[in-house]
């Protein structure tokens, strides 16, 4: 009996051992690697570092260039009835390396249109303003200015007309200003062409070139001081295309005067360059600028010709407009 019980206990131990071994082997061949086999777990802790700039290709290695600046009207004139102002927006075209900083003499927008655009608000009490901007970098500085006038009369409304039918007859005079000098302004400075020719565009060194036409002398202007200008007409015949000036899009003819050797220029008129053979214009800005000169006893009147749009096409050759016979240029003033 005892022997039978011993066999039963031994059988139970053997069966229990086999069960334990079988359970343990069910884990055989399984990987203990904790990585996600389906790559479904992303490493959210990784960080993409910014790529360092290639210093060899940075603008710092470009050729240093002194600052240059040119002003032109981008918008206006506009009339604001709410505050009774006539306002202009002027854009500065700036070149230079390193990139120049720009400083404006006034900006009524407080920088709302970026640092290359300034707004000038004119009032009836202050109907004109000479806006000046200076571009400056480590290589040098440049300054340009533009004379702005109130030109919003069309928005003021129609006043009551209670005038007599009979108008006073006022004698009107016409006078041509004497051309006294022509030349160019560029980074190379002033070049005097006498009365022979004038040029605007770019030169062989890809610098902007402005043409300058100067009119009048003390005796002639003294006769005109105090006159009311009715019209100022500019006639420039025989314009010759040099090279490929179409990069400039338009040419500006800007009336100017000098105060303490500094040019003060108004907006002027602009003309498409393509196919341009002559200019004959009585633009209102010519009249306004001439009136300012006479009202302030300034004894000279200048026209500056310059390109709008790009200042050069960087092809290493002269491109622009040449006035063939400068002596034929005429500025005619009708006044009373």
What's the helix and strand layout?
Elements: H1 2-25, E1 65-80, E2 85-97, E3 101-104, E4 117-122, E5 128-137, E6 140-149, E7 173-176, E8 179-186, E9 189-194, E10 198-202, E11 208-215, H2 218-224, E12 229-236, E13 239-242, E14 250-259, E15 262-265, E16 269-272, E17 279-281, H3 284-295, E18 301-307, E19 319-323, E20 330-335
Antiparallel strand pairs: 1-2, 2-4, 3-5, 5-6, 7-20, 8-9, 8-11, 10-11, 10-19, 11-18, 12-17, 12-20, 13-19, 14-15, 14-16, 14-18
Number of domains: 2
CATH class of the largest domain: Mainly Beta
Structural class per helix/strand content? mainly beta
Can you write the helix and strand succession as a string? HEEEEEEEEEEEHEEEEEEHEEE
| Total DSSP helices | 3
Based on the structure, what is the oligomeric state of the protein chains?
Answer: single chain
Strand content: 35-45%
Helix content: 10-25%
Distance between the termini: 153 Å
Taken from the alpha-carbon principal axes, the silhouette is elongated
The CATH architecture of the largest domain comes to Sandwich
Count of distinct strands: 20
Biggest pleated-sheet summary: 10 strands, antiparallel
What is the third-level CATH name, the topology of the largest domain? Jelly Rolls
Radius of gyration: 39 Å
- The low-pLDDT segments are 23-60, 155-165
Nearest-integer average pLDDT: 78
